[in-house]
Amino acid sequence: MNTALVVTPFGDPKQLAAACVLSDIRGSVVPVGGFSAIVLDDASREHATEVTQKLSKMAGRYEVLLLVREDDAIASGHYRGGKRQSEVPAGLALQNLPEDVERLLLGQADPADIEGAQHTADISKMQASALTMTGARAAIARTAIVWMIVAAVAFVALVIGAVVALSGPWYMWIATALAAGVFGVSLFRINRLLGRRK
Fold first, then answer.
1. At what angle do helices 13-22 and 125-132 cross, to 10 degrees?
2. What integer pLDDT is reported at residue 134 of this predicted model?
3. Which of 55, 79, 106, 148 is 20 to 30 A from residue 166's alpha carbon, by CA?
4. What transmembrane ranges does the database entry give (predicted)?
5. Alpha helix segments (H runs only) across 106-167
6. Domain locations in the chain?
7. β-pairing verdict for 64-70 and 118-119
8. Contact criterion met (CB below 8 Å) for 103 and 110
9. What is 12-54 written as a DSSP string?
């Protein structure tokens, strides 16, 4: 039975789990010392390599370590920026990592047995987005929601005002124009706010 495990520089396992959920990477995320690792559901070498390339891009200038056990052989390598950097003797790599990593790799421990472990299937994409959102982005999102509510109210006022103005007093057109102005400003603000989140 194959096992594939990727050790990342993410200090908070929840951050790694959220990043994996948003990237459609399935597996069990576990804390390993001051880092986090994911034990992949699909342990094939091809899939493990693809996942490691993705995670190494997320890690920026930091390296991630891929460990793959196939039968009795263990292969390992460092990746950075989506590219493989170097082969690493598995023994040397494991020597510098907590014992849990070797136990997971050899199948001597189940990821669920590790304190703080979490499977990516237990996190929704909405929860993952919230976990990866910084305070500044959260504030922008809240402001955008307020403007969406304003836009919805203005749109309703615009429709009602137009209907009433067609058969009512002339000054209803002024109210309709004001509602249209508020609606337009709201859409502009929402567009600006969402643009800043990218």
1. 130
2. 52
3. 148
4. 144-164, 170-190
5. 125-132, 135-167
6. 3-123, 139-195
7. unpaired
8. no
9. SHHHHHHHHHHTT--EEEEEETTEEEEEESS--HHHHHHHHHH
